[in-house]
Every structure is written in structure tokens, then in C-alpha cells.
Amino acid sequence: MLQQNKYRPTRNTIKLKLDHLGLLISGEWAKNNQTRLINTRHVSVWVKALLKSVDHDETLQIIGRVSADVNSLLTHNIAHDAITVDRYYALDDEAQF
What we know:
By secondary structure, this protein is mainly alpha-helical. The protein has a domain at 38-97. The protein is built from four helices and no strands. Helix 1 (11-29) runs parallel beside helix 3. The longest helix has 19 residues, at 11-29.
């Protein structure tokens, strides 16, 4: 039996946080194009960042950053064009996306 590192998040913890994040995003993304605050480009950036986070063993950190950005978009605290790939990982890493 493999011993789990006490500092590594459990699969269940990640799943719960991603489920919550998905509900936040989908609730807004499903709205009419003229009124929604989350668009397809945002979702694409977040998917890329979350996938890359697995390689960097930073999944919980990136989930937290994306969640904060989703909340900031929904409360009008950041501009929609602030969500870019380099917000989560350096541009030189983008080639690996």
C-alpha cells in the first residue's frame, strides 16, 4: 500500500474544489453572450492553467487562483481581459500548453 504524502492534496480534495469551481464557472458561462462575465476564452485559459498545474504539482494553488479570479470577475473587481495565460504561468511555458 502506498503511503500518501501528508502535504500532497488528496484526490477527493481536488475533486471537491474543482466541482465547486465548475459550478461557479458554468453558472455564469451559460448565460447570454451579451450579459455573461465569463467567456470561452477565460475557460480555455483556465483549462490550460489547470492542466499545466498537474505537471508542476501546483493543482490546489492554481485552483485557488482561478477561483479568486472567477469571484473577482463576478464581482467586477478585475477586467475581463486580465485573464490571460501568463497570469498563471510564464509566457515561455505557454509553448508547452
